Amino acid sequence: MSAPTPSPEDTPIDLPAESPTPPGGHIPDHFSPDDALPKVEPPSGRFILQLFVYPLVIVSVIVGAGLLINWVTRLGGDPHDYIDALERNNDARWQAAMNLANVLRSDHNQEFKSNSKQAARLAAVLDREMTLAGKGDKAVRLRMYLGRALGEFHVADGLPVMIKAASTQRFEQELKVRWFAFAGISKLVERMSSDPGFDEDEKLLQFLLKSLEDPEASIQWRAAFALGWYDDPRATAAMVQSLTTGGHVNVRYNAATALARRGDVRCEQVLRQMLDLESIITTIENPEETDLEEDELRKLADMQRYTIAKNSLVATIMLAKANKTADLTELEQSIRDLRDQDLESHFVYDASKYVIGLRELSDAALQAIADR
């Protein structure tokens, strides 16, 4: 008979000769499960910041930014709010004036831009600022953008104070106020000249004629541009004289464009000069652009050459349509010469776009001449 198989309970367990001693050399009498848990310490201030405060700040910033964007969007859609802000006395008014000018440049708010009361309110703000004659940067910027904003209106209520701003220069920085006022006057005259009921303002006409002789060249060509929209014999005579006088080259360019619009062939020679890319004279007058790097200035000059040539092409179309009996053979040849040039060598800034634009306009100019 075989021996019985011992049960697991009866099987002896071989223990190591020496059991490892716990750290410290002390063998505890008993072992608790709590001994296996890490030591519990009170939360630190940094832990509380990371867990609660930082997320709360992030959420607050996101919500606040959304509310701010919604407020700005709502404010930007209503130019009345900007007028209200301009009538209050605070340092941020120049920003309200800039925003108003930008809002009015769009095709929206047509009813507002035809509102004489709103134009008069804005004109009163500019008039007050002209009287105060602040020399600080914010005060100058405020007057600049007020003049530009008034030029976006479809009513002439702001014209007297715009003339005042365009003719006043008590210190160097105020020249920029004159520039913006002239820009506003030009837009206003251009827009209103197409209105059959447009009443050409005699005071403005005399002011523009006088401004052609202003010591500042930048004022001369801006005056010529505005004067070009006047259908008056005195304005036409001044434009013709400007073609040959020794004034700023942009005066001649603007005069030629204005005469082309009237169908006056005396502008042809200057229009041909505007198509000669090698002889086009460019100017960088804006002080904010003088800090550009040399390469950027070169690109800006190329853009100006393109713009001048483009203006000549558009003027040629207007001339051909306004005077169907004029002999424009030489002007047509100048356009062909321009089209055949290696334009990429001239327009290094986005050259392909400029080449396409010039060639399309060249074809349009040639077709306009042919269709007469």
Largest sheet: none
Count of the separate structural domains: 3
**Shape assignment:** globular
Instruction: Kindly estimate the percentage of residues that lie in beta strands according to DSSP.
Output: under 5%
Number of strands: 0
Separation, N- and C-terminal Cα atoms: 135 Å
Task: Provide mean pLDDT, rounded.
Answer: 80
Structural class: mainly alpha
Helix tally?
A: 16
Which residues form runs of ≥5 with pLDDT under 50?
11-19, 69-75
Helix content: 55-70%
SSE string, helices as H and strands as E: HHHHHHHHHHHHHHHH
Describe the structure.
- By secondary structure, this protein is an all-alpha fold.
- The chain folds into 3 domains: 69-186, no CATH class; 200-262, Leucine-rich Repeat Variant (Alpha Horseshoe); 265-372.
- Helix content is 61%, strand content 0%.
- It has 16 helices and no strands.
- It has helices spanning 45-76, 79-86, 93-105, 110-113, 116-132, 137-150, 159-166, 175-193, 202-211, 217-227, 233-242, 249-262, 268-274, 294-322, 329-339, 351-370.
- It is globular and about 60 Å long.
- It starts with 44 loop residues before the first helix and ends with a helix.
- The relative contact order is 0.05.
- The model is unreliable at 11-19 and 69-75 (pLDDT under 50).
